[in-house]
Each structure stands twice: as C-alpha cells, then as structure tokens.
Amino acid sequence: MKPNKPAKILITDDDSLVRDAVAKILEMFGHQVTPTGSGEEAISVLNDEFDLIILDINMPGMDGFDTIKAINERGYDIPVLFLTGAGSMEYAIKAINLGAYDFIQKPIEDIDLFNVKINRAIEKRMFILREKAYTENLEEEVAAKTKELAEKNKLLQQYSHHLEVASVNTIITLQTALEEKDQYTAGHTNRVTHYAMLIGRSLGLSQEDLAVLDRACQLHDVGKLVIDVSCIQKPGPLSDEEWQLVRKHPVIGENIIKPLSFLEREGGIVRHHHERLDGKGYPDGIGGDEIDLLTKIVTVADSYDAMTSQRSYRINLDRQQAIAELRKCVGTQFDGEVVEHFAGILEEDTTLTANSLQELQDSGFSGIFAG
Fold it and tell me: How far apart are CA 57 and CA 65, in angstroms?
C-alpha cells in the first residue's frame, strides 16, 4: 500500500449513532470507511482490500465473536479492533484471544489515543502485506532459480554423458583398429558383445546391468592396446614368456579405464573376464561367488567366440562342438546357468555363428553404447 493512499476501514456496529460517529472521526483522519450494521452484512462485503476492521461485540444475530471467527476463516490477515463498552473488558480479552489486534472502549473520549491505535493497526496491515509480497516474490525467485539450476544440471548431465560416450567410443575405436589389423581377431569385440547381450536378456538383467555388460564387453580386451600381442598370430602354442605377456592384458585394461570413474563396474569385469570358477584363472585367481554374474557372462561369450573363430595355431570348433565344450567346463571354468541359457539361444538360432556375425559386422553392425 502506498503511504499517501487512504486506508480502507470496515466498521460494524448495530448502533447507528456509534457507527456514524466513529465513521466521521475516521474520515476526518483521511480514511475511507465502509459502515455495516451487523456481522452478516460485514461478512457479505468483506474482501482482502480492507486494511482494518472495527467490530462491535454485542450485536444481534452474529455477534462480534462469531464475526471474527468468520473473518479468520477468510485468511485475509486484516487486523481487527473491537469496540467494547464499560464493564465488558472480559469480552475484549476473549476477543483478543480469538485473534483481535486490540480493543477500543466506547464512548470514544480520547481522540488522539484512538488515532494512535488506528494507525498502529494500519501499520501492521502494511507490514503483513509487505511480508506477504516479499514471501511471494521470494517463492517466485526460488522457483525460477530452481528451474534454472535444474536446466543447468540437465545440461551438465548431458555434457557429462556426451563426454562419457566420447571417451568410451575413442577407446573402442582404437581397440577395433587393433583388431582389424589381425584377420584372426577382427570382429571379436562385436561378436562377444552380441553374444553377451543375448545371454543377459535371456537371464532377465535390468537395463542398468545390460548397459554395464554392453560397455564391459566392448572394453574387455582394451589392455591389448598397449602390449605386443603379435605372438597370438604365430602358429603353434605360445611360449611361457609370450603367455605371461598375454595374461597381463586384463589388469592393463582395468588400469586404462580406471580414470573414468563412471566405468568402475566395467573395470572389474575387464580385470576378471579370464577368471575361472575353480580359481585357476588370472590375474587374481578368484573363483565361485567372487566372480559376479556379468563377468561370468562375458567369460562364456568370450570363450565361445575364441573356440568358434579361426586361429593361426588351430582349427576352430563348430557350434555343436563349442556348446559341448562349454558344458564340459561347467563348474570348473563356466557358470552352469549362463552356459545353459547361451546353449539354448545357440540351439534355437542355428545361424548364430562367428562367420554369420562377421558378415553382419561387415554390413555395418557394431556394439551399441548404452548410456
């Protein structure tokens, strides 16, 4: 409310002489007055534009107490001054307990005191309105800032996701380039990823676990980027020295992706994808329940592709021979449930071979980065 704007005052008294006298005094002080003769009439004209209510206690119908209760129900927070006659001070106290701001004793003899009480009540109303406006503005500002922060957070999440995708795709591109230099390993990562995802879906993995499985498969041999694995192409078995070199790639792979904190689970799978249930795998020799389900899936998919892919030092197995080998090694190397789910997939889809997947890769197939 502007300082020079007249205050709007609602006065209610069933005594017209008192009502008119008080109204004239208020108008003399520059206020805008709306007189009413009953509680019912006061409630009928009440709105939140009033700055002050002056209310008689003893009135027929709705008395002052009933009227202030109805006023409070509106929630306008308009100060109420009660008019009380001599001998009715206990009424005034009751009214104040009901939320009245103050009381004025009638007949009004001290005009200056009356004016002070009126002005203080109006000042309270102005304070209430300012506080309400401040609160509303603050809520709007908070809502706007919250929305702004949410939008910025969304952009940051998108940017972070794009960085994650770019980081993983860069590594995968380098790994793919390495594979393509060797006719015996070309397409291995894509095939392992495809096999593992088929197993994961068959096992009913969650979308989150499928995303982790996808990334782990695509990164499982990333350690070969920094070690010389040309020995894999040689005919015949590897020497002890060559074998020790090859066995380093899971640990090196984990170390490569370790700085990418969002790939923590994938790092564990990369490290352990050559472990065995009987504890005779590498690099840590863990076994049984120490190996998580996703790692067990990658191990089966990786081993199957190795058995069915052509190598320089041996003839590859066909689908049925590879299934038989997987089942033969259940309990020592592979998890039985994973093997049976994969065997069921292979036996149902007889076209699912290393050669068919190689053809699929040549036509544009690649693993999908699930963000």
Answer: 7
Q: Which two tokens stand for residue 252?
A: 């090196």
Cβ atoms of 218 and 172 within 8 Å: the answer is yes
At 370 the pLDDT is 37
Query: Tell me, what amino acid is at 294?
Result: L
Tell me how far apart the alpha carbons of residues 74 and 94 are, in angstroms, rounded to a whole number.
Answer: 20
3-state secondary structure 88-103: CHHHHHHHHHCCCCEE
**DSSP for 21-36?**
HHHHHHHHTT-EEEEE
Catalytic residue flag (residue 224):
yes
d(CA 339, CA 299): 10
Catalytic residue selected from 8, 106, 117, 224: 224
- The string over 98-114, giving b where at least 16 C-beta atoms fall within 10 Å of a residue's C-beta and e elsewhere, is eebbbbbbbeeeeeeeb
What topology is assigned to 8-136 in CATH? Rossmann fold (3.40.50)
- Second CATH level (architecture) for the domain 181-362: Orthogonal Bundle (1.10)
pLDDT at 182: 55
Q: Could you tell me the residue ranges of all domains in the chain?
A: 8-136, 181-362
Question: 346 with 319: CB under 8 angstroms?
Answer: yes
Candidates 260, 227, 259; CA nearest to 369 is 260
Phi, psi of 334 (to 5 degrees): -120, 155
> Where does the pLDDT of residue 2 fall: very low under 50, low under 70, confident under 90, or very high at 90 and above?
very low
Helix axes 188-202 and 336-348, enclosed angle (nearest 10): 100
HSE-CB for 239 with a 13 A CA cutoff: 5
* pLDDT tens-digit readout, 234-256: 666 777 887 888 889 999 999 98
Q: Is 167 in contact with 280 (CB distance < 8 Å)?
A: no
Q: Is the pTM of this model over 0.85?
A: no
Answer yes or no: same fold for 8-136 and 181-362. no
How many DSSP H helices and E strands does the chain contain? 14, 5
pLDDT digits (tens, 9 = 90+) for 344-367: 999 887 666 545 454 444 433 344
DSSP secondary structure code for residue 15 in this structure: -
What are the respective helix, strand and coil percentages of the chain, to the nearest 5?
Answer: 60, 10, 30
In whole angstroms, give the CA distance from residue 339 to residue 158: 38
